[in-house]
Prior knowledge:
globular; 2 strands; two-stranded antiparallel ribbon
Amino acid sequence: MTDGTDRRSRWRGLRPRWLDPYMAALAGTVGLAALFPATGGSARVAAVACNLAVALLFFLYGARLSARQTLAGLGHLRLHGLVLAATFGLFPLLGVATALLTPAPLTGQLQTGVLFLCLLPSTVQSSVALTGAAGGDVPAAICAGTYSSLAGLLLTPLLAAWLLGAHTALSAEGLLRIAAQLLAPFLLGQLLRPWIGGFLSRHKRVLTPMDRGSILLVVYTAFSAAMAQGIWGLATPGCLLGLVAVLLALLAAALAATWLGARLLGLDRPATIAAVLCGSQKSLANGLPMATVLFGPQAGLLVLPLMAYHQLQLVAGTVLAGRWARAPAATPAGRTPPAGRVPAALTAGPDGPPVPG
Length: 357
């Protein structure tokens, strides 16, 4: 009886995710950029501030990430291999398929945005929260999301250079710029972690709004540039409906493939839940900064598929977590791990690497 009550409590705790306040803030930022876009000198100031915000985001990700805790999760190799294969193997193939099969209304920059979405790493925050609510393997979800984020620092730009070369300014100089703006701050944060990690852990409630504020600045800058180019004329109602249909098909295919892969690999119920929820999600917090670095002023409309997919994955994940939480566990291993099983009570920034604390 207690077990069922706990599951119902976890389900009730997930209900607010249907109306994600962060997505409301993102939508409001897009509206602000549409009404009052940064132009001229203010656009140049916003672009510089955006670059600094991106560097700060990845510096904080690096400073928060514990190498010891990351290495401790290497034991579940089948689960992590499945999540990485889905994130950087299956999704890019699905993205290429949508480019070949999607009807005419979804072409141009929206289609490029869908393909870019498919190249991004998985989340940490939402996948861990949903895994815990569903009775899944929370430590495995933390590690799977972290490994995906780390791999994305390298694989996402390389895959983008390969599949989106015509749409990005990637060259030797461009890759160096990406390394300087994303990888270098992350590594610097890792180097300084022994000295500043404790401070960041104690002040994580202050730093989380800073994370999200930085991402909102990225969104405002990107959509201001899109407004200056008159790009919203391309986002017709037919295009937007087609986009939602394509994103739903992508999400359904990813959920089905990760569930089937987990069954074929013989993963237990908690690990299967973690694999499905981690392998089907894409990181908004990593994707938005990467888009501004990869696409520059063209990033505005290209990130619209990512923002829409983020909301769809939350809704689908909430529904699945609720069903798993209400379903009786086949074995005691299907229960939610006790608090002590979660390494250092990890929490996370907005989809980025975990924050110890």
